[in-house]
Write a structure and sequence with these properties.
Number of helices: 3
Largest sheet: 2 strands, parallel
Strand order of the largest sheet: 1-2
Distance between the termini: 17 Å
Shape: globular
Strand content: 5-15%
CATH topology: Ribosomal Protein S5, domain 2
């Protein structure tokens, strides 16, 4: 299960929803690599501007890390 926290300081509702959709798509891209569990992904203004491949790579490195403490 994955939940997304995109606060108002990111921008308008349209921008926040766009960020949420990009994050959701990035998680779907790496879905098979992610261990089962519950994840809360927080975003800030930079998530709207980062290229999609970089977003996927960042999420992959965070969600597939061996550490329990991220």
């Amino acid at each position: 299960m994955v939940a997304f926290a995109v606060p108002r300081r990111v921008g308008t509702a349209v921008l926040r929803n766009r960020v949420r959709r990009r994050l959701r798509a990035a998680v779907r891209t790496i879905g098979a690599e992610v261990p089962e569990g519950r994840y809360l992904i927080g975003a800030d203004q930079r998530a709207a501007a980062v290229p999609f491949p970089a977003l996927v790579d960042t999420l992959r490195s965070l969600m597939t890390a061996e550490s329990d403490c991220l």
